[in-house]
Amino acid sequence: MRNIPLYEVRPINTLREMLNSSSEIYGDKAAFLVKRKGEEKYEPVTYKQFKNDVCALGTALLSLGLAGKRIAIISENRYEWVVAYMAAVNGIGVVVPLDKELPVNEIENLVNRSKVNAIVYSGNCRQHIENLASRNSTVEYYIGMDSDDFEDQKIKSFKKLLEKGREILEKGDTGYDSLQIDPEAMNILLFTSATTAKSKAVMLSHRNLSSNLMAMCTMLYIDPSDVFLSVLPLHHTYENTCGFLCPIYRGATVAFCEGLRHIQKNLQESKATVMLGVPLIFEAMHRRLWDTISKQPETEKKLKLALKISKLAGKIGIDLRKKLFAPIHNNFGGKVRLFISGAAGIDPLVSKGFRELGIFVLQGYGLTECSPIVALNRDVDFRDNAAGIPLPGLDVRIISPGSDGIGEITVKGPSVMMGYYEDAESTEKVLKDGWFHTGDLGYLDKNEFVYITGRKKNVIVTKNGKNIYPEEIETLLGRCPHIKESIVFGKDDDVYGDVVVSATIVPDMEKIEADFADKPLTPEEIRELIHKEVKEVNKSLVTYKYIKDFDLRDEEFEKTTSKKIKRYVES
Question: Alpha helices of 279-412 — where are they, by DSSP H?
Fold first, then answer.
């Protein structure tokens, strides 16, 4: 590690220890900001209430005979989700968070593969659950977050289970709190983002998550006064560990976002200070901001002058950003200090652009198999184009590097998974002598920063052995004013007698229509507009990386629920 002191953290061995100690330390402070059905305002839920609700639900699950069993959760981000997660993982058995966006046949496949005994679900997923229940006889209980009235032998009400758990606790029953937790045992089963046939079930333990939480919090300062806006789906390990468990560990508050369309409104309502996201979200926010400003020439002129003044003041240690750019900050609620980007590399110009306006954008690097964080930029030590520095306690090694130092990134340490559930063959391919082989390519610089160049399976190799990383070119295309998104790939070309770089591009039709409102462009003119922008990108590349061919696509690419483009989609 570099010679910059780490932040102090309290030791934890399990998530139960974390919850119990946070409840004692932060008691009456808000752990969550929740919007109840039909309500317009966020209402606080204290740390004490959260712990009591977890204990009540866990006690009720125990009374149903679910000790040692597997509990799936299928829901949008909401308070009941986090209560169910903590109740299941902190003594009952194994928690299995599932993606609510999957079609019912895929959900059924994952339920069967993970041998789920009970499913906690929201009303928005009721249709899926009813279809599943009509065909599945192995699930013992279906627990509805919004099923307040109806109950039968298999269908239970979340609300009534909470009441039942409280009644049992009032009689002095301490059975749930007495359940033993083995920090080394599998208690979390997470599916990777892929089609059901290819997705792998990652086995994680309390030790995996606890070590990752402690390590990441030594590197990034999270204050009890922070409010996190939870935007990404909680079944995804990035949001789960970093956007839910991390703030609860550090005494912060989590506000649940009502959906991607409501980010700005919810930032304002919750007075959030921190938000986790993926590059797609932050890059879209940055582009939208400047598109709006560019339509107001006088405002744009003033803003560019303010940026110059801010930089000059910064050189003599005076930070004027909050004052100079107050309208922009107010647009985000006036309190945002930090955006954390993960799941893919963010355009360094976007990180720099937000920081110049007074909002830090830091990125990290992780994988589900590593609980998830491997490397993280610090608020006191960062590089906009790097994934960050390896977490304390994690070893990162580059294997089989080429002459440019680029090789596969491997990781070893306490947050590396136990393996893939019931898949010894896949486990053996990626876990060798304790080292996890990520499938990502990159390099380490002399200051220990990790740089990701792309996925091993995506790399384009020319016939003379040159490596081309599509992600680099996609970042450049993403900066073009009229390109919304792209996928870059290699294909054999008889004319060139080699593999050439090609791209499928989605034009930003909203921007094109706005910019050419006076004279709408024909399809041929749109293609020519994109061609000019591709040629501009080529000017910044070495010759063998030139985009030689491209086609246009009307619809956006299919994405995971964490908003990553699915590069390989089966037709």
Answer: 279-294, 297-315, 321-324, 326-331, 348-356
